[in-house]
């Protein structure tokens, strides 16, 4: 289903939960709504579902405005955060509910339910009650139940929040594969960036009721549109005083410009390890943290603190050691704009120093 | 552990004095003049009539209050068309009958619908007697027992939350279907508990009914007002007979209450 | 909705209107009448006594029923609700039979010069009986919620049993005791059925407010009945309001 949202607003009393949100979603895409808790993601989802009425704005499915369509007639599957399974019904009856509402024949219902039960790996559990299932199994039931009436759009509210961290990643892959095989347009809400990046085709970042950016996980990571997105996605350090960063001393004439620096923007080497010496600046290793597959290194350049990673294959560093640091690029922003600046010294080395 | 013994012993003493001994007393009292007088007391025409009146009131009141109590609870918990302030106001109004002395409850109905008032006179004209007749008694009992059902169902509704209902509506179920298939199975033991409490209360209602009914023998006398009259007439054995029947009912209801409470907790 | 408004709001407004229908002075005259005034004061006094008794008994019984396991516990726990289930008139009759002049207790008391039935003690007993479940039912859920580890934490910090009780457990129960006591008090004020049978209803001596109102109605003086009713109602509403304040503060925490 093709979805179009125009100028969506929602207020609860004095609280402006969703502010002028507009977007388009292509058919068949898996979209992640990502943002801090309480940022309005769930409100957007509930308005799409028809469980909440927008204060203003239009929701358009397939070119048809559905604002006034009750949830019963929107043809949407919804997976709730705590699954909202019917406690007094078996797995079978839970999945069959939507089909019974549609007054399908017994055989049809049976066939569809058994297909979904098998698809979601719940075979043998049909006659159990929700309280007899594990968290992961409940989630599968909720998923099968939402898919049963063959919805055009699937909405999932924090689908993995109530699941143990251990099986969460397993379930994520499972869900992504399943949604792909069913081929249904899906939107899920999450506050976990790792989850969004791993599962979604496209991410929409929502903060304080606004849509900050929409794009593929890679695009968002590479080219964050706003400082919020840049700091929310991936690791980063914010540097307020640019004067100590070599190559960026005169980066901006605009006052109040700050730099956001990701660990991978920084190349770190013992004296002699980096070829482009002219672009490097001296730094001191403050702390080392072993992170399983690599070292996390805390550095100090003058009074500026930076964080980067170093491969285990390279020579081991020690706190207090003098090293050289090359800053490849920085994400700069001030109140009016934001842009990415490559280190000019790197692009245009001065040959006479070689 | 002797302190523990002391506390448990004291608890037994209080229960014994306050609850158990009186129950035995009434059972013994009713039979004190032999089984015959007990049966006679019960089979007096006014006893039978009074028990029948009580029965009618209990059935009608319980039916009406169950229906409207569940409806109001749904409105107060789920209703979105009511503003938060109005909801809070209504919510506190629900409890008012608990704070009103039954006698005052009865008085209100007399003042509002008595033969000397506009509304009362109007009903009188069309041949429908409210006060000093069955409708008034039902009304008085309705008033007194109104909060019970609402108060039993509301917390259950709050606890189960609205997500299951929303899930049902996402799958195409309309409110009526959702109520019967999803909401009702979750609240039914709360409702049953409320019904038992309402029955108990309307069975035992005395003050309000006494005021509204005028306590006319063989006409508007209920079981409890008959007990009162028998006592006033120093006919203690007769009073005992009817009281024993009422007490037996109460104990039965108490057992039902326990059962409903347990089932309620399971779900 | 309309049903709800008609059933509850209308009558309550009606009684306020009626009591003031003949002006403030008539209202004051009705209340200031010595018998009416005495009835109200007596009711308040006796209800306070009954409430205090129930606070002590209720706290003890609530505690015993939750914390101790002993034979008969579940039966006693069910019996707590008996006064709710039993018609109040039957309750009154019970007390009359048990403590009346012909009974063992009544005879004994009379012999040492205490009169129970048709005097104040009987009214208090009736009120205690009728309001018996309130305090117990209000503190039981709190005690159940109280984490045993809180108590144990107090012990590990060196607190004695008594100190733990007064500093850890009692404060947890306090809101329950308070709201239960308020409800019991308001019920005691309103009680009619049990009291009318045992009180003797001697004007100025053992005539409580609700019985006074009944008498006024019987003697065809709705004006006076309404005035005292309004006084009693306002008091009850105030209590109800305090209870809901206590509860909302508790849930707010």
UniProtKB/TrEMBL annotation, chain A:
Domain ABC transporter, residue spans: 3-233
Reaction equation(s) it catalyzes: a quaternary ammonium(out) + ATP + H2O = a quaternary ammonium(in) + ADP + phosphate + H(+)
Alphabetical list of PROSITE patterns matching this protein: ABC_TRANSPORTER_1, ABC_TRANSPORTER_2
Domain of life of the organism encoding this protein: Bacteria
UniProt-recorded Gene Ontology molecular function terms: ABC-type quaternary ammonium compound transporting activity; ABC-type sulfate transporter activity; ATP binding; ATP hydrolysis activity
NCBIfam families: 3a0106s01
Complex and partners: The complex is composed of two ATP-binding proteins (OpuCA), two transmembrane proteins (OpuCB and OpuCD) and a solute-binding protein (OpuCC).
Protein name: Carnitine transport ATP-binding protein OpuCA
UniProtKB/TrEMBL annotation, chain C:
UniProt KW Transmembrane keyword: yes
Gene3D superfamilies with a match to the protein in the record: MetI-like
One of the record's GO cellular component terms: plasma membrane
Predominant cellular place of this UniProt entry's protein: membrane
GO molecular function: ABC-type sulfate transporter activity; molybdate ion transmembrane transporter activity
Keywords: Cell membrane, Membrane, Molybdenum, Sulfate transport, Transmembrane, Transmembrane helix, Transport
Transmembrane segments: 43-66, 78-100, 112-136, 192-214, 226-246
Membrane topology: Multi-pass membrane protein
Metal-binding found in the keyword field: no
Pfam families: BPD_transp_1
Subcellular localization: Cell membrane; Membrane
Domain annotation ABC transmembrane type-1: ranges: 40-243
Family recorded in the similarity comment: Belongs to the binding-protein-dependent transport system permease family. CysTW subfamily.
Described function: Part of the binding-protein-dependent transport system for molybdenum; probably responsible for the translocation of the substrate across the membrane. Part of the ABC transporter complex CysAWTP (TC 3.A.1.6.1) involved in sulfate/thiosulfate import. Probably responsible for the translocation of the substrate across the membrane.
Protein name: Molybdenum transport system permease
Biological source species: Paenibacillus oryzae
